[in-house]
Each structure stands twice: as C-alpha cells, then as structure tokens.
Amino acid sequence: MNFFRLLGDLSHLASIFILLHKIQTTRSCRGISFKTQALYVAVFVTRYLDLFFRYVSLYNSVMKLFFIASSCYILYLMKYKYRPTHDPSIDTFRIEYLLGPCFVLSLIFNYKFSFSEILWSFSIFLEAVAILPQLFMLQRTGEAETITTHYLAALGVYRALYIPNWIYRYFTEGLVDPIAVTAGIVQTGLYLDFFYVYFTKVLQGQKFELPA
Amino acid sequence: DASDSKHDEL
C-alpha cells in the first residue's frame, strides 16, 4: 500500500458517499445513469469473486465487500425507491457495445486463460468504460447538478491517483500490471473533458454547463 | 510472475 493508492481508494469511497448523499438529500436520482451504476455492479462482482479464494488483507476484503454492497444498494435505490425520478429516455447509451468488446478483449488479454482471470480482465476493461453512459447522458442534457459533478470528479480522481501508484510500484517493487495500467490510463483519459469543465467552472463557483 | 498475479489492488 502506498500513499497514492490509499488516497485513490479513499477518493473512490468518497465518490460513493457523495452519490448516496445526492440521492438521499435530493430524494432523486435525476442526472445519474442507471446503466453506469449497473455496470459498476458487474465490475465489482466479476472482479471481487476472489473474495472466496484469495485473501490479501483485511483492508482489501472490507473494501471489496463495501464496493459490492454499496453499488447494489445504489442500484436498488434507483430501481425501486426513487424509480420515478429516473428518466430512461435520456439514459440511452447502448451498453452491449461495451460488454461485447470488453468480453472479447478479456479473452485475448488475460494473465491466465482461466475462468477467474478472464473475469478479472473483463472487469478491468469494463470499469475503464463503465462511465461512458453517464458521460453520454451529461453530454445530452448539457448540464449537471453540482453535487453530481463532485461525485464524478471524486470517481475520476480515484483512477487518476492509481497512475502515480503504478509508477511508484514500478520503482519500489518492480511491479508492472500491463492490463490494469493500460485500462487505467484509458479510463482516466475519458475524464479529461469532464475535468476541464469541472476545474474551470464548478470549482470557480459556476454551474456545470456544457457549451451548446 | 504474471500468470500468478496477485491482484492486490481494488
């Protein structure tokens, strides 16, 4: 564990608490893509299957359980409790265009051609693009509640911090995880446009609005 | 060894 990874994980935790806070205080999941949230459940369930056969640390296990449980809970809130506030007509990204290629990629790029390793690769690739339905929705509506942008920023910062973590691990442990690094760089890259607007507008006290 | 990867990250 190093500083960057810990900070990244804390940022990930923060993003989930911000999202829960947004849903519960506004009593609405307006502006949140159900598809992205569903993809995160798929990501966590497929990646953290190793809870059953690999022990890393208490920290690791607790975080994994938290990410699975919280993502399922968010899905429940969106699907049942605050269902009327979710508008599927603007959440129209075709996720099969993500699931298919990620599955094919995981068959080609994996560390071992086994069920659990293929699922692990799949989850890494899927996580990299899981935010696309959300960003697509943002693009369509052209604006977002400030708290929603804080959620997205925390989520983006989490992945961005994994990059210095990998650099640090390369120099201190000689460790390189090409699949995670490649997917992680792509994932962080997807946030660049968003970050630009977030830093130049939202953090200056303005509303998140995309140019028409 | 990559085939024995530990996946210790989240």
From TrEMBL, chain A:
Membrane-crossing residue ranges in chain numbering: 52-76, 97-113, 119-138, 179-199
Keyword Transport: yes
InterPro entries: ER_ret_rcpt
GO cellular component: endoplasmic reticulum membrane
UniProt keyword annotations, A-Z: Endoplasmic reticulum, ER-Golgi transport, Membrane, Protein transport, Receptor, Transmembrane, Transmembrane helix, Transport
GO biological process, one term: protein transport
Location within or outside the cell: Endoplasmic reticulum membrane
UniProt-recorded Gene Ontology molecular function terms: ER retention sequence binding
Recorded topology in the membrane: Multi-pass membrane protein
Domain of life: Eukaryota
PANTHER family hit by this protein: ER LUMEN PROTEIN RETAINING RECEPTOR
Similarity annotation: Belongs to the ERD2 family.
Protein name: ER lumen protein-retaining receptor
Native source species: Laccaria amethystina LaAM-08-1
